[in-house]
Amino acid sequence: MKANYIDGAWKASDQSIENINPSDISDVVDRYARAEKRDTEAAVEAAVKAFPTWSRKTPQQRADALDFIGSEIIARKQELGDLLAREEGKTLPEAIGEVNRAGQIFKFFAGEALRMAGDLVDSIRPGVAVEVTREPLGVVGIITPWNFPIAIPAWKIAPALAFGNTVVFKPAELTPGSAWALAEIISRADLPHGTFNLVMGRGSVIGNAIVEDSRVNAVTFTGSVDTGRRIAATCVGRMAKFQLEMGGKNPLVVLDDADLDTAVNIAVNGAYFSTGQRCTASSRLIVTEGIHDRFVNAVTERLAKLVVGDAREAGTQMGPVVDGRQLNSVREYIEIGQSEGAKLVYGGDRLQLAREGYYLAPALFTETTADMRINREEIFGPVASVIRVADYEQALEEANRTGFGLSSGICTTSLKHALHFKRHAEAGMIMVNLPTAGVDYHVPFGGRKDSSYGPREQGPAAIEFYTTVKTTYLAG
């Protein structure tokens, strides 16, 4: 059994989490210790005690530690990518790419530790100078989802450590393997005991214990809207800082003037890669009348050729859904779409392959409207729906007709429409002739409306959440 990591030591537990391979449900990846509330409290206590030491380390010492972590992740990307694909179900190339991205993130924030800057300005009063600096917050609670089990932890843990905070990290219970492997690497980075802590277990137990603990100065969370709202209410109640990333219902607009092959490639990538289990997935395909039929036919033909199979087998283009509960949820949405009058033109069936897994044929709906649940609620699976519109103006209106606002894309050869869409699309990230999924680590990540709350993640913008500002007045 793989143990939790608390106060610089591996701590066993009486209970364990069985990690199942969704490509082959007879394959148990490993067993991982399931922490209890008392373990979380011990982790928070260790982080509190470690904060004075870690926060006073020099920028170079923090940078060296993060660079070590990033370098080892990248050196082991094949091994760790295989583990990720095995436990989560994204294809091996996607998994290796995610691991490599995690390593790049740690190395980027190693540099950010050295780039922390302040301002020295003249006061409005004679003989007084004003110094504006940033300082770490203290203990940061990190709660991450299962769909990017090493990249999302990396882009939260790395800036937290880079700017001098200590960490209590709770990964998703569905995918503990990648989190544990990351923690094992961090455990050898010569951090003071208690600087980084891993507690694996139920969100209702571990997550709540982190969020409710008055010693946790800030909470960063990626997950569902309902859970995010509960976290926000609790943090506001005890005046703790919080940052939320909560999903999307992302539109991809395809205009008549779009290059058809480009639009189809972008739509299939955005909607179905990673089995559609991305908060940035293109779940709403908003298509103008002139290209609609050709686009639908071309996407359908492409889906018929899409290879669904074991995530680690060569040639697989789409792996399984992450587990049985998620599979049932996605299939229920497919039934809901049909009951609402949408036309299922392709897929949606559970697939029986050589090894039993949670396989689903990619599903495509047409003849859908904005008021249908399949166009309003996040399905988080390989399902996309087409909304037919008359022109660009109606396409933009439909794109913005959602309670989410994470990523919004457009396929067009018109500079006029691209620039107008960039300005008027109500989302945090805009993609022009690119999939709505797929972002860089050195620029801000985040959205509007129900998708995000608080300062942006990733890139230099991360400093806004993980530090607090101090203004010092100096008399000569």
TrEMBL record:
Residues 11-471 form the Aldehyde dehydrogenase domain. One of its GO terms (molecular function) is oxidoreductase activity, acting on the aldehyde or oxo group of donors, NAD or NADP as acceptor. Belongs to the aldehyde dehydrogenase family. PROSITE patterns: ALDEHYDE_DEHYDR_CYS, ALDEHYDE_DEHYDR_GLU. It comes from the Bacteria. Keywords: Oxidoreductase. The lineage of its organism: Bacteria, Pseudomonadati, Acidobacteriota, Holophagae, Acanthopleuribacterales. Transmembrane segments: none annotated. The active site is at E245. The keyword Transcription does not apply. Gene3D superfamilies: Aldehyde Dehydrogenase, Chain A, domain 1 (3.40.605.10), Aldehyde Dehydrogenase, Chain A, domain 2 (3.40.309.10). This is Aldehyde dehydrogenase family protein. Pfam families: Aldedh (PF00171).
